[in-house]
């Protein structure tokens, strides 16, 4: 079971700072809802992503998936923490699609949700997506 205390405060601060910076590059002309995400790899690297919207709406990529895609493209697939920043009073949690994509790479993951005013909330993938379907389920089908 992941816990936010598994990650030291310095790492959470580095993730928060990276997420704040990348959120400024969000492409969100339709929703005007800018999101930033920063993911920490088990070997200490940080990859970032912002939401990238599209006129067809459904082609939009969330910040979390942009960050994971960037990490995977760089050869990183093992993660130890994620930070997401949204400008709302109660910092938003990753959407359902992003939860499933996080689950592709993580058994569990501590997640920090923040806002620009300094609010912080913590959760985990297990909490956000219990009883999930994953590649491990294939093992039992053969
Ligand atoms: N969004 C994210 O980037 N991450 C989430 O987990 C929730 C939603 C983006 C998608 C869209 O650009 C905007 O927020 C409004 O839904």
Estimate what percentage of residues fall within beta strands.
15-25%
What radius of gyration results from the CA coordinates?
A: 15 Å
- What is the CATH top level name? Alpha Beta
- Give the strand order, joined by hyphens, for the main sheet: 2-1-3-4-5
CATH superfamily: Cytidine Deaminase, domain 2
Keywords:
142 residues, alpha+beta, Cytidine Deaminase, domain 2, five-stranded mixed beta sheet, 4 helices, 5 strands
Q: How does this structure look, described?
A:
By secondary structure, the chain is α+β, with helices and mostly antiparallel strands. The protein has one domain: Cytidine Deaminase, domain 2, CATH 3.40.140.10. The protein is built from four helices and five strands. It has helices at 9-23, 63-73, 96-105, 125-128; strands spanning 35-41, 46-50, 79-86, 110-114, 120-124. It has a five-stranded mixed β-sheet. Strand 4 and strand 5 (120-124) form a beta hairpin. Tetrahydrodeoxyuridine binds next to helix 2.
Structure described in brief:
With 142 residues, the protein is an alpha+beta fold.
Describe the SSE topology.
Layout: H1 9-23, E1 35-41, E2 46-50, H2 63-73, E3 79-86, H3 96-105, E4 110-114, E5 120-124, H4 125-128
Parallel strand pairs: 3-4
Antiparallel strand pairs: 1-2, 1-3, 4-5
The structure holds tetrahydrodeoxyuridine.
Tetrahydrodeoxyuridine (THU) is lined by residues 28, 31, 33, 35, 51, 53, 60, 62-64, 94-95, 98.
């Amino acid at each position: 079971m992941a816990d936010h205390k598994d990650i030291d405060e310095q790492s959470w601060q580095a993730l928060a700072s990276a997420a704040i910076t990348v959120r400024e590059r969000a492409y969100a002309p339709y929703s005007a809802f800018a999101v930033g995400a920063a993911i920490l790899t088990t070997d200490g690297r940080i990859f970032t992503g912002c939401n990238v919207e599209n006129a067809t709406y459904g082609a939009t990529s969330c910040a979390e998936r942009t960050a994971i895609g960037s990490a995977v493209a760089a050869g990183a697939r093992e993660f130890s923490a994620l930070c997401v920043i949204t400008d709302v009073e109660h910092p938003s949690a990753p959407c359902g699609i992003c939860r499933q994509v996080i689950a592709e790479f993580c058994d569990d993951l501590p997640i920090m949700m923040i806002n620009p005013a300094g609010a912080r909330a913590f959760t985990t993938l297990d909490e956000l997506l219990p009883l999930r379907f994953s590649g491990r389920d294939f093992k039992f089908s053969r």
